[in-house]
Fold:
Amino acid sequence: MKIAIVCDSFKESLTAIAVAEAIQAGFQEIFPEAEFIACPAADGGEGTVSALVAATKGKLVEVSVAGPLGTPVEAFYGVTGDGRTAVIEMAAAAGLEMLSPEQRDPGRATTRGVGELIRHALDEGCRHFIVGLGGSATNDGAAGLAQALGARLLDDQGRELEAGGLALSRLARIDVSNIEPRLVECTVEVACDVDNPLLGLEGASAVFGPQKGASAELVASLDNALAVYAQRLEEDLGKTVADIPGAGAAGGAGAGTLAFLNARLRPGFDIVSEMLGLEELLRPVDLVITGEGRIDGQTIRGKTPAGVAEVARRLGKPVIAFGGSLGPDVEKVHAIGIEAVFASVSRPCTLAEALAEARPNLIHVARNVAATLRLGMTLSGKTDRV
Structure:
């Protein structure tokens, strides 16, 4: 019997590879003769770098860059095994979780550090970029990223704008004459799992600004500033991006990467799946196991288990899933091909206890699920296959 384990991380407790290893440990107690394929995965958000580095035998690169408020932070990116593909999580250099609630200010926060990561990867020889937009603290439309790569954003006096989304309200001209010339050699794929436009009630500022600490007044100011930015992108660069689905992702970084990097916005799991060669990986297996930290009704909207289930369903493979916890409307996952879902928490406990006990809990529930599966196979007389 061949079993593929393709899981995302359990946030704050287990990396994607640690999740796969725990599930395999539990299953091996019952199926010691089985062949396992353990493959860490992600959907373009947190954990994408570590998943693709592990899966392709790449490397992690650590570098000091400007953080979301401009002060230096220790960030990272991944280089996959081919040596030419850089995987960057925006949250590593401009992440919301890098700031305390009191520090969060989307009017001042910058994506400059993300641009610095791109420049560093260019120096390393990378020419293919995968950029995950999730978890940003910013609302600057990737203006800081562009400035780090040599673009000049100028006010009506010809002075460089300071960092942050609010400063874009004074943008009078964009000069890209000195932008990083190696960018023309690059292909950039941006993992983007939202379809929000840049502006308006469904735009970057209105939808995501409050999550980053913006008041209603600040939301309005940021939306106005991004409108100025969009006009300049169109008039100075010939890039009409404000209404493209996903332009509003990560505080408008979708729009900025489209305009300055000629990026292609794609669902995060699709990018990861192609990098992993997931369809070929699953083709010979008998059972597919997937999972993430919380499985609920939102899982079907482009999360890793949904992507894995879609590939498995095309191949006619059964799928079960494990989650650190199960949430509202979890039954929706059955409609996308996940036959059964299991929570790893085995007793009433605090969040801190659940996080601390994540590995033994996951091994335990995986072992019990495997034992149930073995019993069913024995009763049906099919002891050699799922």
Remarks:
- The chain has a mean pLDDT of 94.
